[in-house]
Amino acid sequence: MTYKLYNRTGSGGFVVEAALTLAKADFELVDLGSKPGTPLPEEFKSTNPWGQVPTLILPDGSTMTECAAILIHLAACFPEKKLAPLPGTSAHAAFLRWTVFSSVNLYEAILRRGYAFRFTSDPDAIEATRSAANRRAGEAVTVLEGAIEQGPFLLGSSLCVADPYIAMLFLWSRAEVDAPRLNTLAQGVRQHPVVGPVWRRHFGER
Ligand SMILES: N[C@@H](CCC(=O)N[C@@H](CS)C(=O)NCC(=O)O)C(=O)O
User: Fold this and answer.
1) Which option is the CATH number for 90-192: 2.40.50.100, 1.20.1050.10, 3.30.360.10, 3.40.50.980?
2) Residue 33 in this model has a pLDDT that exceeds 90
């Protein structure tokens, strides 16, 4: 039962690597070795037609993409590892809500800022696109900050796989909004005995 994870250091696959490590799953890491924030080589589209990492090859040879979907899938594959709350509970509903929110709102705004040339055909509008995306990322961070009720993690005292995901996106957001709960969550992720070393391999001491 071996997974194969295509990623590059400092990219979104950090969170998939963290989840596989928490699950104690057997996996092979393929580091594409290009610079974060730049398009991947065209040839990678034969593995993922959308040309993005993380791309996870499951033990049966099928392909999965999209961090949020992969996290939800891995949590279902390893229920005994408690990567997420039990399906059907309101805690699981909150896990799904904020994992998907982070993906479609925060991650997407960060990508729009970083790859602004994909979101406008007007070269003069690149800066404005970037700046609007930056504002949107800040708004998403504010909403996420409000979603953390007791902390230190999203759902309380135990870490679930949404936490490293949110911590990574919060780091990338470079949000200039007041977010003490997200800061505490990120600190908990960095200090986590299993996830912390994976974090440092990707993001160093940031
Ligand atoms: N929606 C995707 C986004 C993944 C993504 O944007 N990955 C970046 C690295 S963090 C990437 O592959 N960028 C290269 C590109 O878009 O060309 C997910 O949630 O997994």
Assistant:
1) 1.20.1050.10
2) no
